[in-house]
Amino acid sequence: MSRRAVQIERVFHWPVRVYWEDTDAGGIVFYANYLKFFERARTEWLRSLGLGQHRLREECGGMFVVAETHVKYHRPARLDDELVVTAHLSEMGPASMTILQQVLSKNEQTPASPTELLCTGSIRIGWVDAATLKPAKIPNNILETLKQ
Question: Which helix (H) or strand (E) holds 93?
Fold first, then answer.
């Protein structure tokens, strides 16, 4: 089975507020924290599909881990900003999938541009056996849930 593009138009949205702990001394979001925002949105996206990480580990004996990231920073987020982080399944293979993600600002909204793009990411997550941490095939029931 090879990797294939997924034509699902669903985009998951997760709200995030920028706190002091997310910023550097200048009040700008520290670059690595965008990966944390992406992680929260992916986790909540999976949870919204009934695929909570704890449940997956307990019932299927496996878990998703990040295998690869590509991040592009467009504009900075600042202390107290309201953000929306998205997650969209882009590709799915037998043992991994790629999720496209964005961080959008809700602060500078206009009728023509309700959100402003701050950061984009492509995150590949793989399925591993929870006991050995070795790569494994994603169980069929999980693949079917992701295709819906």
Answer: none
